[in-house]
Recover the amino acids of this structure.
């Protein structure tokens, strides 16, 4: 799985890790993130 970098803030989303602070489970693909995820 690829990592994705936000061009605005530099945040790196790693699907292997998810984003537990936002309730995104590890293994969630970038394209499967909810529309309101920030």
């Amino acid at each position: 799985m690829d990592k994705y970098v936000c061009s605005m803030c530099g945040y790196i989303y790693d699907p292997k890790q998810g984003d537990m602070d936002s309730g995104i489970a590890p293994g969630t693909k970038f394209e499967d993130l909810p529309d309101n995820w920030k």
Notes: The two ends are 20 Å apart (CA to CA). Residues 1-32 form a domain with the Rubrerythrin, domain 2 fold (CATH 2.20.28.10). The CA atoms of residues 24 and 33 lie 8 Å apart.
